[in-house]
Amino acid sequence: QVQLVESGGGSVQPGGSLRLSCAASGIIGSIDQWAWSRQAPGGSREWVASITNVGSTIYQHSVKGRFTLSRDNAKNTVYLQMNSLQPEDTAVYYCKALQASGPNYWGQGTQVTVSS
Prior knowledge:
Layout: E1 3-7, E2 10-12, E3 18-25, E4 33-39, E5 45-52, E6 57-59, E7 67-72, E8 77-82, E9 91-98, E10 105-106, E11 110-114
Parallel strand pairs: 2-11
Antiparallel strand pairs: 1-3, 3-8, 4-5, 4-9, 5-6, 7-8, 9-10, 9-11
């Protein structure tokens, strides 16, 4: 059974930091790319950042310079370090595992709340 288990969400004050993790299990084949998306209350899901299997990253403009993606291929895990968090970063964050020759998978989501 395929599972993407996210962790690390929570509540922080503006300017604070959180580190999200997403660990995959049960996936046959390699994960070629990871992506994080988020969905704010009342909004649609939006892409945040992606990392390839060789570590190349790309970020949404609003998080560039504040968020950092990394991955541990041996552990099938991806990390999203989020610094200088702002209230507009409040959302449910979802990870996605993408395979070039296989299905893609979504995590269940983890809540991030930034509020004073």
